[in-house]
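Re: beginner question about structure tokens

> Can someone show what the tokenized structure looks like for a real chain? I only ever see the sequence side.

Sure, here's an example I had lying around. Input first:
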Amino acid sequence: EVQLVESGGGLVQAGGSLRLSCATSGFAFADYAIAWFRQAPGKEREAVSCVGISDDSPFYIDSVKGRFTISSDNAKKMVYLQMSNLKPEDTAVYYCAVDNLNSVKTCTYYLDGYYYVRHFRYWGQGTQVTVSS
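And the corresponding structure tokens:
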């Protein structure tokens, strides 16, 4: 059974930093793409970042490029999201997600000029990040 448990959320002032962690178990970590999503109050869930098993570099949405960094530790089966220069609009519940993407090796697909994150099936319970102004 795939299990994901996020931690590291909290309250931080604008300009501050947080590191989210996601402990995983129950699957072959090296064969899975990893991702972070977030959902702000009253808004739809959005992808923040992802890495496929053959991606040369991570994907980030424009609003977090240069501020967020996704990483993983295969030996510990951990996924991380380092967030810096946080802004009030980053306030959301953040979710870790994984999927083998049916052996597709990239976490995004390109359509009509845009990159979209593929569908991820396995999710954690989320961790709240609140950025005060």
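Each token stands for a local structural state, so reading them left to right follows the chain. The CA atoms of residues 38 and 94 lie 4 Å apart.
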